[in-house]
Write a structure and sequence with these properties.
Number of strands: 8
Keywords: Coiled coil, Metal-binding, NAD, Transferase, Zinc
Distance between the termini: 35 Å
Structural class: alpha/beta
Mean pLDDT: 90
Number of helices: 10
Enzyme class: transferase
Order of helices and strands: HEHHHEHEEHEHHEEEHH
GO molecular function, one term: NAD+ binding
Catalytic activity: N(6)-acetyl-L-lysyl-[protein] + NAD(+) + H2O = 2''-O-acetyl-ADP-D-ribose + nicotinamide + L-lysyl-[protein]
Radius of gyration: 20 Å
Bound molecules: 2'-O-acetyl adenosine-5-diphosphoribose
Low-confidence stretches: 172-180
GO cellular component, one term: nucleus
Strand order of the largest sheet: 3-2-1-6-7-8
Strand content: 5-15%
Largest sheet: 6 strands, parallel
Helix content: 25-40%
Length: 288
Protein backbone atom coordinates (compact mmCIF):
# COMPACT_ATOMS: atom_id res chain seq x y z
CA UNK A 1 0.00 0.00 0.00
CA UNK A 2 1.23 3.46 -0.85
CA UNK A 3 -0.26 6.89 -0.69
CA UNK A 4 -3.09 7.24 -3.12
CA UNK A 5 -3.23 10.88 -4.13
CA UNK A 6 -6.72 10.30 -5.51
CA UNK A 7 -8.07 8.97 -2.22
CA UNK A 8 -6.61 11.89 -0.31
CA UNK A 9 -8.22 14.24 -2.84
CA UNK A 10 -11.49 12.43 -2.21
CA UNK A 11 -11.10 12.99 1.53
CA UNK A 12 -10.48 16.69 0.86
CA UNK A 13 -13.63 16.88 -1.30
CA UNK A 14 -15.58 15.15 1.45
CA UNK A 15 -14.49 17.88 3.85
CA UNK A 16 -14.89 20.72 1.34
CA UNK A 17 -18.42 19.70 0.40
CA UNK A 18 -19.45 19.81 4.04
CA UNK A 19 -19.89 16.06 4.50
CA UNK A 20 -17.42 15.97 7.38
CA UNK A 21 -18.63 18.22 10.18
CA UNK A 22 -17.77 15.91 13.04
CA UNK A 23 -14.19 14.90 12.52
CA UNK A 24 -12.71 12.69 15.22
CA UNK A 25 -8.91 12.52 15.44
CA UNK A 26 -6.97 9.77 17.25
CA UNK A 27 -3.29 10.35 17.88
CA UNK A 28 -0.21 8.76 19.39
CA UNK A 29 3.48 9.40 19.91
CA UNK A 30 4.19 9.50 16.16
CA UNK A 31 2.74 13.01 15.87
CA UNK A 32 5.33 14.31 18.34
CA UNK A 33 8.49 12.69 16.97
CA UNK A 34 9.03 15.70 14.67
CA UNK A 35 9.12 17.81 17.85
CA UNK A 36 12.08 15.73 19.03
CA UNK A 37 10.18 13.46 21.44
CA UNK A 38 10.86 9.77 20.81
CA UNK A 39 7.90 7.45 20.32
CA UNK A 40 7.68 4.14 22.20
CA UNK A 41 7.84 1.30 19.73
CA UNK A 42 9.87 2.42 16.72
CA UNK A 43 12.64 -0.19 16.43
CA UNK A 44 15.73 2.01 16.87
CA UNK A 45 14.62 5.46 17.92
CA UNK A 46 11.72 4.42 20.19
CA UNK A 47 11.86 4.86 23.94
CA UNK A 48 11.41 1.18 24.67
CA UNK A 49 14.49 0.35 22.57
CA UNK A 50 16.52 2.94 24.46
CA UNK A 51 15.70 2.29 28.08
CA UNK A 52 18.38 -0.37 28.54
CA UNK A 53 20.56 2.13 30.41
CA UNK A 54 17.93 2.40 33.12
CA UNK A 55 18.18 -1.27 34.09
CA UNK A 56 14.52 -2.10 33.71
CA UNK A 57 13.19 -5.68 33.79
CA UNK A 58 11.35 -4.76 30.60
CA UNK A 59 10.91 -1.35 28.96
CA UNK A 60 7.21 -1.12 29.79
CA UNK A 61 8.15 -1.26 33.50
CA UNK A 62 8.72 2.48 33.33
CA UNK A 63 4.91 2.78 33.29
CA UNK A 64 4.22 -0.07 35.72
CA UNK A 65 2.82 0.88 39.12
CA UNK A 66 4.36 -1.93 41.18
CA UNK A 67 7.76 -1.30 39.60
CA UNK A 68 7.32 2.43 40.23
CA UNK A 69 6.73 1.73 43.95
CA UNK A 70 10.05 -0.09 44.12
CA UNK A 71 11.98 2.23 41.88
CA UNK A 72 10.47 5.50 40.69
CA UNK A 73 13.80 6.79 39.29
CA UNK A 74 13.46 5.49 35.70
CA UNK A 75 10.06 7.14 35.40
CA UNK A 76 11.41 10.41 36.80
CA UNK A 77 14.38 10.26 34.44
CA UNK A 78 11.84 10.19 31.65
CA UNK A 79 9.69 12.86 33.29
CA UNK A 80 12.74 15.13 33.37
CA UNK A 81 12.78 14.94 29.57
CA UNK A 82 9.06 15.27 28.99
CA UNK A 83 7.57 17.39 31.76
CA UNK A 84 6.06 20.53 30.23
CA UNK A 85 7.43 22.57 33.14
CA UNK A 86 10.99 21.85 32.05
CA UNK A 87 10.72 20.57 28.48
CA UNK A 88 10.69 23.06 25.65
CA UNK A 89 9.10 21.14 22.81
CA UNK A 90 7.04 22.83 20.13
CA UNK A 91 3.85 21.43 18.61
CA UNK A 92 4.25 19.86 15.16
CA UNK A 93 2.47 20.48 11.86
CA UNK A 94 0.18 17.56 12.73
CA UNK A 95 -0.83 19.27 15.99
CA UNK A 96 -1.39 22.50 14.05
CA UNK A 97 -3.64 20.69 11.57
CA UNK A 98 -5.88 19.48 14.41
CA UNK A 99 -5.92 23.03 15.82
CA UNK A 100 -6.99 24.24 12.39
CA UNK A 101 -9.84 21.72 12.30
CA UNK A 102 -10.96 23.04 15.68
CA UNK A 103 -10.78 26.64 14.54
CA UNK A 104 -12.93 25.73 11.52
CA UNK A 105 -15.41 24.07 13.91
CA UNK A 106 -14.90 20.68 12.30
CA UNK A 107 -13.20 18.94 15.21
CA UNK A 108 -15.70 16.80 17.09
CA UNK A 109 -13.07 15.37 19.44
CA UNK A 110 -9.37 14.63 19.62
CA UNK A 111 -8.44 11.45 21.46
CA UNK A 112 -4.74 11.48 22.26
CA UNK A 113 -2.55 8.91 23.97
CA UNK A 114 0.23 11.44 24.36
CA UNK A 115 1.35 12.86 27.68
CA UNK A 116 3.42 15.72 26.30
CA UNK A 117 0.60 18.30 26.49
CA UNK A 118 1.47 19.56 22.98
CA UNK A 119 -2.21 19.50 21.98
CA UNK A 120 -2.94 22.24 24.48
CA UNK A 121 0.20 24.11 23.44
CA UNK A 122 -1.02 24.00 19.82
CA UNK A 123 -4.18 25.83 20.83
CA UNK A 124 -6.68 22.98 20.52
CA UNK A 125 -9.53 23.88 22.91
CA UNK A 126 -9.32 21.77 26.10
CA UNK A 127 -12.97 20.73 25.77
CA UNK A 128 -12.11 19.06 22.44
CA UNK A 129 -9.24 17.01 23.87
CA UNK A 130 -9.47 13.66 25.61
CA UNK A 131 -6.12 12.79 27.14
CA UNK A 132 -6.80 9.09 27.17
CA UNK A 133 -3.57 8.22 28.99
CA UNK A 134 -3.63 11.23 31.28
CA UNK A 135 -0.95 13.91 31.26
CA UNK A 136 1.62 15.80 33.29
CA UNK A 137 -0.94 18.53 33.98
CA UNK A 138 -1.63 17.30 37.53
CA UNK A 139 -0.20 14.80 40.02
CA UNK A 140 -1.04 13.13 43.29
CA UNK A 141 0.21 10.75 45.97
CA UNK A 142 -0.20 7.12 44.90
CA UNK A 143 -1.15 6.15 48.48
CA UNK A 144 -3.37 8.83 50.02
CA UNK A 145 -4.26 10.34 46.57
CA UNK A 146 -3.67 13.82 47.86
CA UNK A 147 -3.06 16.35 45.07
CA UNK A 148 0.50 17.67 44.87
CA UNK A 149 1.15 21.29 43.84
CA UNK A 150 2.25 22.02 40.28
CA UNK A 151 5.00 24.42 41.34
CA UNK A 152 6.55 21.87 43.71
CA UNK A 153 6.35 19.25 41.00
CA UNK A 154 8.21 21.49 38.55
CA UNK A 155 10.90 22.10 41.18
CA UNK A 156 11.35 18.40 41.87
CA UNK A 157 11.50 17.48 38.20
CA UNK A 158 13.96 20.29 37.48
CA UNK A 159 16.20 19.14 40.34
CA UNK A 160 15.91 15.47 39.44
CA UNK A 161 14.24 14.70 42.79
CA UNK A 162 11.51 12.13 43.30
CA UNK A 163 8.54 14.01 44.84
CA UNK A 164 6.95 12.66 48.00
CA UNK A 165 3.69 13.48 49.69
CA UNK A 166 4.25 15.90 52.59
CA UNK A 167 6.93 18.39 53.48
CA UNK A 168 6.51 22.11 53.08
CA UNK A 169 3.33 23.43 51.50
CA UNK A 170 3.38 20.97 48.66
CA UNK A 171 -0.36 20.77 48.27
CA UNK A 172 -2.63 22.99 46.27
CA UNK A 173 -4.78 24.76 48.80
CA UNK A 174 -7.70 24.85 46.41
CA UNK A 175 -7.52 21.17 45.59
CA UNK A 176 -10.35 20.21 47.88
CA UNK A 177 -8.15 18.22 50.20
CA UNK A 178 -7.94 20.77 52.96
CA UNK A 179 -4.88 22.81 53.75
CA UNK A 180 -3.07 20.35 55.94
CA UNK A 181 0.70 20.54 55.50
CA UNK A 182 1.30 17.00 56.61
CA UNK A 183 1.59 14.29 54.03
CA UNK A 184 1.83 10.52 54.16
CA UNK A 185 5.27 10.34 52.58
CA UNK A 186 3.98 8.28 49.67
CA UNK A 187 5.35 8.60 46.17
CA UNK A 188 3.86 11.27 43.98
CA UNK A 189 2.98 10.35 40.41
CA UNK A 190 1.65 12.51 37.58
CA UNK A 191 -1.88 11.61 36.52
CA UNK A 192 -0.56 9.47 33.69
CA UNK A 193 -2.23 6.12 33.13
CA UNK A 194 0.17 3.33 34.00
CA UNK A 195 -0.32 -0.23 32.77
CA UNK A 196 -3.14 -1.87 34.68
CA UNK A 197 -4.68 1.46 35.70
CA UNK A 198 -8.09 2.60 34.53
CA UNK A 199 -8.28 5.27 31.86
CA UNK A 200 -9.61 8.68 32.92
CA UNK A 201 -13.39 8.96 33.22
CA UNK A 202 -13.37 11.45 30.33
CA UNK A 203 -12.33 8.66 27.96
CA UNK A 204 -15.43 6.62 28.73
CA UNK A 205 -17.67 9.68 28.89
CA UNK A 206 -16.51 10.88 25.46
CA UNK A 207 -16.15 7.50 23.74
CA UNK A 208 -19.45 7.99 21.92
CA UNK A 209 -17.97 10.95 20.05
CA UNK A 210 -16.14 8.34 17.99
CA UNK A 211 -19.45 6.69 17.10
CA UNK A 212 -20.86 10.06 16.01
CA UNK A 213 -17.91 10.82 13.72
CA UNK A 214 -18.43 11.39 10.02
CA UNK A 215 -14.68 11.22 9.36
CA UNK A 216 -11.90 9.60 11.38
CA UNK A 217 -8.25 10.61 11.22
CA UNK A 218 -5.75 8.26 12.90
CA UNK A 219 -2.26 9.72 13.23
CA UNK A 220 1.06 8.45 14.57
CA UNK A 221 -0.01 5.52 16.70
CA UNK A 222 0.80 1.82 16.60
CA UNK A 223 -2.69 1.04 18.01
CA UNK A 224 -1.16 -1.56 20.32
CA UNK A 225 -2.62 -0.42 23.62
CA UNK A 226 -6.23 -1.13 24.54
CA UNK A 227 -8.87 0.14 25.04
CA UNK A 228 -7.66 3.10 22.94
CA UNK A 229 -6.75 0.80 20.05
CA UNK A 230 -10.42 -0.15 19.64
CA UNK A 231 -11.61 3.44 19.02
CA UNK A 232 -11.26 3.49 15.21
CA UNK A 233 -13.63 0.51 15.08
CA UNK A 234 -16.40 2.56 16.70
CA UNK A 235 -16.84 4.44 13.44
CA UNK A 236 -19.85 3.54 11.35
CA UNK A 237 -19.07 1.10 8.51
CA UNK A 238 -19.38 3.79 5.84
CA UNK A 239 -17.41 6.45 7.67
CA UNK A 240 -14.09 7.11 5.96
CA UNK A 241 -11.05 6.45 8.13
CA UNK A 242 -7.75 8.02 7.15
CA UNK A 243 -4.45 6.75 8.54
CA UNK A 244 -1.39 9.03 8.62
CA UNK A 245 1.37 6.74 9.85
CA UNK A 246 4.76 5.29 8.93
CA UNK A 247 3.30 1.80 9.00
CA UNK A 248 -0.03 0.07 8.62
CA UNK A 249 -1.70 -0.44 12.03
CA UNK A 250 -4.75 -1.98 13.67
CA UNK A 251 -7.73 -2.67 11.45
CA UNK A 252 -7.04 0.34 9.23
CA UNK A 253 -7.12 -0.72 5.61
CA UNK A 254 -9.72 -3.45 6.06
CA UNK A 255 -12.71 -1.30 5.09
CA UNK A 256 -13.59 -0.09 1.60
CA UNK A 257 -13.48 3.57 2.61
CA UNK A 258 -10.21 3.43 4.54
CA UNK A 259 -7.49 5.67 3.12
CA UNK A 260 -3.88 4.91 3.94
CA UNK A 261 -1.38 7.77 3.87
CA UNK A 262 1.80 5.91 4.71
CA UNK A 263 4.83 8.02 5.57
CA UNK A 264 5.59 10.96 7.82
CA UNK A 265 2.34 12.35 9.26
CA UNK A 266 3.39 15.99 8.91
CA UNK A 267 4.01 15.39 5.21
CA UNK A 268 0.65 13.60 4.96
CA UNK A 269 -1.37 16.39 6.59
CA UNK A 270 0.46 18.98 4.45
CA UNK A 271 -0.72 17.06 1.36
CA UNK A 272 -4.27 17.04 2.70
CA UNK A 273 -3.99 20.77 3.46
CA UNK A 274 -2.83 21.34 -0.13
CA UNK A 275 -5.87 19.48 -1.44
CA UNK A 276 -8.10 21.55 0.83
CA UNK A 277 -6.49 24.86 -0.10
CA UNK A 278 -5.58 25.30 3.56
CA UNK A 279 -1.81 25.05 3.23
CA UNK A 280 -0.96 28.69 3.97
CA UNK A 281 -3.31 28.73 6.91
CA UNK A 282 -1.76 25.51 8.21
CA UNK A 283 1.79 26.84 8.01
CA UNK A 284 0.69 30.08 9.67
CA UNK A 285 -1.07 28.19 12.47
CA UNK A 286 2.05 26.08 12.98
CA UNK A 287 4.40 29.09 13.14
CA UNK A 288 2.22 31.01 15.61
P1 LIG B 1 4.06 3.83 19.56
O1 LIG B 1 5.51 4.15 19.71
O2 LIG B 1 3.60 2.50 19.96
O3 LIG B 1 3.64 4.03 18.03
C1 LIG B 1 4.01 5.17 17.29
C2 LIG B 1 3.55 4.97 15.86
O4 LIG B 1 3.82 6.16 15.14
C3 LIG B 1 4.29 3.83 15.15
O5 LIG B 1 3.38 3.12 14.35
C4 LIG B 1 5.32 4.58 14.26
O6 LIG B 1 5.61 3.90 13.06
C5 LIG B 1 4.57 5.85 13.97
N1 LIG B 1 5.41 7.03 13.72
C6 LIG B 1 6.55 7.42 14.35
N2 LIG B 1 6.99 8.58 13.85
C7 LIG B 1 6.11 8.96 12.88
C8 LIG B 1 6.02 10.07 11.98
N3 LIG B 1 6.91 11.07 11.98
N4 LIG B 1 4.98 10.10 11.11
C9 LIG B 1 4.05 9.10 11.09
N5 LIG B 1 4.10 8.03 11.91
C10 LIG B 1 5.11 7.96 12.79
O7 LIG B 1 3.26 5.00 20.31
P2 LIG B 1 1.71 4.99 20.74
O8 LIG B 1 0.89 4.30 19.75
O9 LIG B 1 1.39 6.39 21.07
O10 LIG B 1 1.44 4.61 27.18
O11 LIG B 1 1.78 4.13 22.06
C11 LIG B 1 0.63 3.92 22.82
C12 LIG B 1 0.92 3.90 24.31
O12 LIG B 1 1.95 2.95 24.59
C13 LIG B 1 1.47 5.21 24.83
O13 LIG B 1 0.44 6.10 25.17
C14 LIG B 1 2.28 4.80 26.04
C15 LIG B 1 2.85 3.49 25.58
O14 LIG B 1 3.02 2.54 26.56
C16 LIG B 1 1.60 5.46 28.24
O15 LIG B 1 2.33 6.42 28.22
C17 LIG B 1 0.77 5.18 29.42
Amino acid sequence: LTLSERSLAAVADFIKFGKARRIVVMTGAGISTAAGIPDFRSPETGLYANLAALNLPEPEAVFDLSFFRENPRPFYALAGELHPGTARYRPTVSHAFVALLARRRLLHMLFTQNIDCLERAAGIPPDRIVEAHGSFASQRCIDCKRVFADARMRECVARGEVPRCGGDSDHDDDAGHGTSRSGCGGLVKPDIVFFGEALPRAFFEQMDRAREADLILVMGTSLQVHPFAGLPNFAGETVPRVLFNLELVGSLGTRADDVMVLGDCDAGVRKLADELGWRDELEKTWRE
